[in-house]
Design brief:
single chain; 330 residues; alpha/beta; Spore Coat Polysaccharide Biosynthesis Protein SpsA, Chain A; 26 strands
Length: 330
């Protein structure tokens, strides 16, 4: 079965971290989120996966390769010009258009039941089905309104508190039938949320939402949500595909160096090749690969990007920091 991971964007919401690291390679517990997504898709039988790349594309293809390390086959779309979420999928029509397929965003960390969403999609003979989860507060999400059958009757984008018509939010996880390509203009910039979905709803097409209730879903595309997802992984509230629940307060990569008198308080992630020197203290922070904390330095409630160095005796508190990139668009 075939699926597509949308991964072409710049992920400006995570700047400056993603100036140097493309968003599919943003690490969760020391491993790129794209790897977690591929394993998630594979667990439901989706072993032929397309992925669009644009920004720092060579880094992505180098890290993920042909997919064999995950037991899947990856097909890359190298976009010289981004054409939106739907525009990217349309360019892969030759690959995806033979049967219903799944689309997920590379910012997603989730355990939504793809088998149940796909079965619901088939039962409704739908053109498109959106995976939905329920949230108590929906003012920061795209809200989806459905009738009793699950057919989509309306949308609200980040409604003010008290004005929401639903507690169901769009996860960015979709099932499409090949007929979706009849609704995407070839060669144009087309977005699912802004263009395709409103048009489907207004035309009365077979367009549905599958309510996954309290299934886990987090969009890691902002520092706050990225930290929440990381904390959920560390606490065991969310289990990464193919890995045992962590249920620990601190995760330290096997090749990290932590001085014997350094102190680490969780929830914290100490990524690959990180160095924490004598007398240093790290509290409730995420350190990406190659970062370093000098002697007697202190890092609290912060995220350190790849290879970022905190000088001896320096204090960071509530910071999101990264080196400026030394690469250009690929």
């Amino acid at each position: 079965m075939r699926a597509m991971i949308l991964a072409g964007g710049l992920s400006t919401r995570l700047y400056p971290l993603t100036k140097q690291v493309p968003k599919p390679l943003v690490p969760v517990a020391g491993e790129p989120n794209a790897a977690h997504l591929i394993r998630y898709l594979k667990s439901y039988g989706y072993d032929e996966i397309a992925i669009n790349v644009h920004y720092l594309s060579d880094a992505i293809t180098s890290a993920l390769g042909d997919g064999s390390q995950f037991g899947v086959r990856l097909e890359y779309l190298h976009e010289k010009e981004l054409l939106g979420s739907a525009g990217a999928v349309e360019q892969m029509k030759y690959y995806l258009g033979g049967a219903p397929f799944v689309v997920v965003g590379c910012d997603d960390l989730t355990d939504l039941p793809l088998d149940k969403i796909a079965a619901f999609h088939q039962e409704k003979n739908a053109v498109a089905t959106i995976g939905l989860v329920e949230r108590k507060d929906v003012d920061q999400y795209g809200v989806v309104v459905t009738d009793e059958s699950g057919k989509i009757t309306g949308f609200q984008e980040k409604p003010a508190k008290g004005t929401e018509r639903s507690k169901k939010v769009n996860t960015g996880i979709y099932v499409f039938s090949p007929a979706i390509f009849n609704h995407i203009e070839h060669g144009a910039f087309v977005d699912f949320g802004k263009n395709v979905f409103p048009a489907l709803q207004q035309a009365g097409e077979a367009f549905y939402g599958y309510d996954a209730g309290n299934a886990y879903w987090c969009d890691i595309g902002t520092p706050g949500e990225y930290r929440r997802a990381t904390n959920d992984v560390l606490s065991g509230a969310f289990r990464l595909p193919g890995r045992e629940p962590m249920q620990r307060n601190v995760w330290i990569a096997s090749d990290a160096h932590v001085a014997s008198d350094a102190q680490i308080d969780g929830p914290s992630v100490i990524g690959p090749r990180v160095r924490i020197e004598s007398g240093a203290r790290v509290e409730r922070s995420i350190l990406w690969q190659g970062a370093s904390v000098g002697p007697n330095a202190s890092v609290r409630d912060s995220i350190l990007g790849m290879n970022y160095a905190v000088a001896a005796g320096e204090t960071l508190d509530g910071a999101v920091v990264a080196n400026e990139p030394d690469t250009t668009l690929a």
